[in-house]
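Reader question, answered in our methods column.
A reader sent in the components of a multi-part assembly and asked whether the whole thing could be modeled at once rather than chain by chain. We filled in our standard form and ran it. Here is what they sent:
COMPLEX SIZE: two components
ENTRIES:
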Amino acid sequence: MNRPTRLTTAHQSITFSRRMMLLGTAQAGVGALLIGRLGWLSIAQNQKYQLLSESNRVQLIPVPPRRGWIIDRNGKPIAINKASFRVDIIPQQLTDGSTVVKELTSLLALPPDEVDRINKELSHSRGFQPVSVADNIPYEQYAAITVRLPELAGVAASRGFTRYYPGGSAVGQLVGYVGAANEKEYEAEDKNPLLLVPGVKIGKEGLEKTLEQTLRGVPGGQRVEVTARGKLVKELDPKPDRSGGTVQLTIDADLHEYAARRIGDQSCSVVVIDVTNGDILAMPSMPSFNPNNFSDGISTNEWKMLSGDDHLPLVDKALESLYPSGSTIKPSMAMALLNAGIDRKQRVNCTGSYPLGNHVFHCDKRHGPVDMDAAVVHSCDIYFYEMCRRVGADKLAPMVRSMGFGEKFDLPFDNQRYGTVPDPEWMLRKYHRQWQTYDTINMSIGQGMVLINPLQLAVMASRLATGKRVIPRLMKNKPVAPQAQLEVDADHLNFIHSAMAGVVDHGTAAAAKLPLDGIQMAGKTGTAQTHNLSASERGNYTAANWKLRDHSLFMAFVPFDKPRYAAAAIVEHGGFGAAVAAPLIRDTITFLYDKQKAMAALDAFEQSIGGPLEERMARKTASWRSANGLPPLPAEKA
Amino acid sequence: MITSAIIPKPLARLPWRLIFLVASIAGFGLLVLFSAAGGSVQPWALKQAIIFCVFLGIAISMSWVKESTIKAITFPLYAVTLIMLVGVEALGFVSKGAQRWLELGPIRLQPSEFMKPAIVLTLARFYELVPVGEIRKWRAIWPAMLLLGVPAFLILVQPDLGTCIMVGLCGVTVMFLAGLPWWVFVAPATAVGVAAPIVYGMMHGYQRKRIDVFLNPESDPLGAGYHISQSKIAIGSGGIWGKGFLQGSQSHLDYLPEGHTDFVFATMAEEWGLVGGVLLIFAFALVIRWGMRVSANARTRFSQLAAAGLSATIFFYVSINLMMVMGLAPVVGVPLPLVSFGGSAVMTVMLCLGLLMALERQQRTTSSLA
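And here is the structure of the entire assembly that came back:
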């Protein structure tokens, strides 16, 4: 009872007051903490949270920019945008998804795999982002949807733009095509949200692909205020888009299309160059695909048909295909021989065969004694075998190279191939063997290891025409490359011009004389062997051995005495150069000077092979489909 | 206290300053609810206004209750609440689902809400009965622990962690003020401090994740941290002056979940900014200070402890909610009294205020007689 620690009421009162004080202080402390925290959030971090709140509130629906045009040198459209009709579903407005999709399926005749895709996209979509149902539909279907819109809640039928190529398949290999971005392209662009917008197409091939950044433009955006559940509340001021830039090519669309049509059913590429500045005026590669069919997605069947075609419609032959140059190399060889000191009057007796070691090389004819002029005009192989053997490959290859063979050109295509001009050093490096005399013999007539593409052949024609280093140019806004003088004498040049004029006048290409007064063409034919056929087989071509035939080549420039244009054509398995390639170049060159005359020739030509290009392509498709057991395509949509 | 010849004495003797303060807070809350509903009194503001008026009336009527009466009904009230808690538990067991309320005709009674003032009054009464010299002894500690522990456990298993913590904190506050030795509070706190990391180490992945998300809500902004992230965005984007009445995008576009109940403070701060938030905190501070004054001026040990405990109840309500919405405490589901939509919190706070007013009237009566 007398413990000193005994507590009294007074003690208790003091304890209470002290603890009340403590409690009050703690409460005030918590209050201060709360106010401090509030201040920290709303002052110090205000900017951060305001940004977050804005990014919550405002969503950007990208509005795709209109793709830039591709026009020709005269401003004529090559690739433009055509108004089209499309149908999308806006998921947030959709009340009865399955009924709507079913209805659309029957209205638009959607195939089952499309329906699956739509259902899948609908289940993954955010409310305000449209899901594409169908693209580029015919007006009848668009109209059928629009009248039923009141009962199709959530469906939006709208007008958009589709890429349109007036030239159709004639420009297919030149411009390439556009299509919706795939997963890889989306990843490659750091998941650019624009690529996910329905209807946005990017370049997949050719110029459309390589000039993508110029053509695409800057997307705008419809800024919208949305709720947490993706419901659209209101539209804010849109961010305007900027159309893609127009790209002007050096191509002359009319000439290009003319050449494409004049090619007919051959597997061929033609290149026409303005020698004064290197402008590529035409560069069709036929047959081709129709890029208009690609822009709204190509069917598996169409793809199968194209990729199975032995005329290679999916290859840009002008730049991607390599061929032996054949005799077209001879004028350049002649220049090399002249530089090496060969007298052009010196004759070689052509007996039709040329034995070397235990092998005998042939000429297609027994020319008798020929000088250089006659050897070019009549394309005598034995003259070049002999003369080139005398001079040696080391003096030949540099000249051939300087004329453009094997040269790389800076053009906006990502799949060019450049071919080969062999020489002893190259042979050692590539095949680890010594250069042999028969290599020189083969090279002298453009066989063996010599490989070129049609553009290089046209460049060679340009350089022979001018004696200058003509650099081909495709982009009109790119400055013209200065043309350096080649290592050729003016005298030599004059000689080769007249010899090549002789080829067309009274030589191997005499059938290809221009039907024009006062304009004379200079040229050189070439026949590139692909298989070792006997002479009798060569004279007896049938459709069955098409693949075994020689390639037909021709290069030319006009006028021979004051060159302005150069052209080249390589017709795959076309037979003799003079027979197919030379008339083709003749008509194409005629078009440059006299359109009427050229068109008359084309009409007659197309009559003879069964109608205009698109008609023939449609027929080809139909026969392919029936051969593969497929139903015929529906009549062309309006 | 207003003194005027015109106003009748009973009315004039009401603590008008407190009533005005509370009405202001509630009025401000109604504005926020009006905005949260997109500028409409439906479905929240009107209903809340009616609830508030009813409970304000009840609180004012309670101010005439005598301290002796309060003391007399304390233990029975506690017992009845405890029985109701058990009843809720039994009902939940029968219906195989968590349940927190009892349906009594049209009224939905949530006994855990009653337990907040009940535990305060009970412990105050208990410590009034404990003789002065016994306060440091074991027999002054274990009955209080039992009185507090049983209801807290029952609420925890409902499960209602928020209310459980509140009841616990209210009870502990009364025990603290009653003068229990320090070790009673320090020892468990130390134990928790030491055990927490160990427990964390032993936890399952999903349990750890909840704690991680509380510590860093941005780590899971679309999942468990969504509430707190959005709440911080709402508060932070409000800035000093706020986005303006009816202009809050976070609440109006539904980014802020529970913007009219537990996260009503975020809705408010987005539109009224730091200024609105500070004013609201100050208003609550004044109410709590008024309650603490009642306690400080009390004549009896019961009223001392009860008044402090009831004020603490309001304090814990406000501070836990604000810490929660500002990311200082985990989301435990404690509403902001007088502002959040819902009757329970209003009822509890108004019961506390009614009891405080009664105790305060008692002081003035006795003092004026002295």
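What stands out: Chain A has a mean pLDDT of 86. The first strand of chain A starts at residue 58 and ends at 63.
Send us your own complexes using the same form.
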